[in-house]
Amino acid sequence: RIMGSSFDFVQQQGIIDKIAITGGTARLAVDENGVITFENIVKSSKLPSSPVHEPEVTKSESKPWKIDLSAFNLAGFSLEYQDASRSPGVNAGVDTINIDLMAEIEAGGDQARGLISNIAVDLSGIFAGLADTPEPEIRINKLTIEEGSYDLVPNTLTMEKISINDGKVDLKRQTDGNINLALLVAPPEERIIAEELTEMESEDHALQFLAKIIAVSDIETTFSDLSVQPDSPIITLEDISGVLNDVDGQSPMTFNLELKI
Asked: Of 61, 55, 56, which Cα lies nearest the Cα of 109?
């Protein structure tokens, strides 16, 4: 639902008071050949293309459009993801997604610009696991992001606080020596490709992020070695809680940690 919109075609400006989306589910599946489900739909009907003669762009035509979105609200949305292109496969999803934000967008000029502010995210029922395991390796009951903002041109993301509450992590060393969580993030061949892409990536375009506070509470972690003790975990850590400050992936950070064994 779109509310309170107006567009000035002379000044090339648009104002939208609110966009609200309630309910719905997105299902994203990757098959054994690495083809995403919606790509099949897009590629199924391809019309023959004809030569396109682009008109000469004058200075007046290059004036950017400016869009001001006062409020965007996504509520009660869910996400399901399955990837059968890797071995082992991966199943992941989020039961409930709620997002609020504001946005200012400028497009059509020499450089696109965008500022997304007042970002608030509330995720419930997060899970991720290997396809050949009965229970997901990672379950998080609640994850929230407070007072986030993203600036497109410098590619910077800042978040006042990330909270992770009530979850379980199952860490296993498998009989072949692989760690299940490492396989979940990326199989060995994908890890090699990811490392090569990271080395090639220009630092000028790399995402810069800062989370001023990351708070974790009520997390249980089990450690197992299937080659030594296949029927039960070797150790279980309960009620893991902690706080990290000024996390940017580069600088030193302070932290507090509490847990029970």
From this structure: 61
